Amino acid sequence: MRILVTGSSGHLGEALMRTLRAAAHDAVGIDIAPSPYTDAVGSVADRDFVARCMRGAQAVLHAATLHKPHVATHTRQDFVDTNITGTLNLLEEAAANGVGAFVYTSTTSAFGDALVPPAGEPAAWITEDVAPVAKNIYGATKTAAEDLCRIFQRKQKLPCLVLRTSRFFPEPDDDPALRGAYADGNIKANELLYRRVDVQDIVDAHLLAVARAPEIGFGRYIVSATTPFEHEDRAELRRDAPAVLARRVPGYEAEYAHRGWRMFPSLDRVYVNALARKELGWRPRYDFGHILERLRAGEDPRSPLAQAIGIKGYHGQAYEDGLYPVE
C-alpha cells in the first residue's frame, strides 16, 4: 500500500515512517524540513506540491502541523495556512485521487478551556462527548481541520478518522515551575495516568485507523494511555490525587520513594480512551502499570521507538526558557 505521511521530519511523522518502512510499505514522507524520513520537501499549504505528492497514494496519515509551542513564534495566519489550508489541500487531493483512508492527527489540546474545571469542582472526565472550547489559535485551527475532515467524509465519501492524541513529546515540560519541582521522568510517569501516551501506541492507533476508516467512515478518538482511574474518582482526584493512586495502583509508592519521586497533589482532567479501544481495537501497551514494571527492572520506560527518535525540539534554537519561547 502506498501511504503518504505528512510531517515526516517530526516526532510522530518519523515514527510512522520508521514503522511503515520496516513493514515494507510504500511510504512517502513529506515535510517542510529535510530528514532521512522525508522524500519530498515542501509545504502542505502549497496545493501544487500536495497534488504531486498525492499521486498513487492509497492512504494518508496527516501529522504535519504547527504546534502549541509555535503560538509564541508564528502568526495566526501561519496557523491557518498550515493547519487549515494545508489540511484542506490534502483532503481535496485525496478525494480527487480516490484515497481509501485519511487519518488526521489532532490533539487533546483542542478541548481547550473545557479541560480545566472551576476551583473546587471535580476533575474533568474527558471523552469525545466533551465540546471543545478553544483557548488559542492552535486549538481553533485543529478543530477547524477536524470539521473539514467530517465534511469531506460526508460530501465526498472520503473515509476520515481524527485521532486526538495526548502529550507524547520527549522534550522537558514547557512549564518552568513544574520542571523546577519535579524530575522530568517523574512528570512523564505521572502524566501517563491521565494525559500522556507513548509514540509507539500512537503509531499503532494510526495504522489501525487506516484499516478501519473505510468501515467507520468518520470518527473522532482520544488517543491517550489507559487511565487506572474511574469516573467516581473525579472529586477526590482534584483534592488528593496521591490517595486515589494508592488505591488504584497499590504499591506504586515504593518505586516512587526509591527514586525520590512524587505524585502530583491534584489532577484537573482525565483523558478517557474507551472509544478508541472499542471501535479501533486499539490496545495501548505503555500505560502507568507497564512503566512501573520497567522502572522496577531498571529499564528505560519508553518504547524502543521513542528512544530511537529522541528529542527534536520545535524551533531549532534555544531561548531564555530553554526550548520554549515566552509568548
From TrEMBL:
Residues 3-211 form the NAD-dependent epimerase/dehydratase domain. It comes from Luteimonas gilva. This is NAD(P)-dependent oxidoreductase. It comes from the Bacteria. PANTHER family: BIFUNCTIONAL POLYMYXIN RESISTANCE PROTEIN ARNA, BLL0593 PROTEIN. Transmembrane segments: none annotated. Pfam families: Epimerase. Gene3D superfamilies: NAD(P)-binding Rossmann-like Domain.
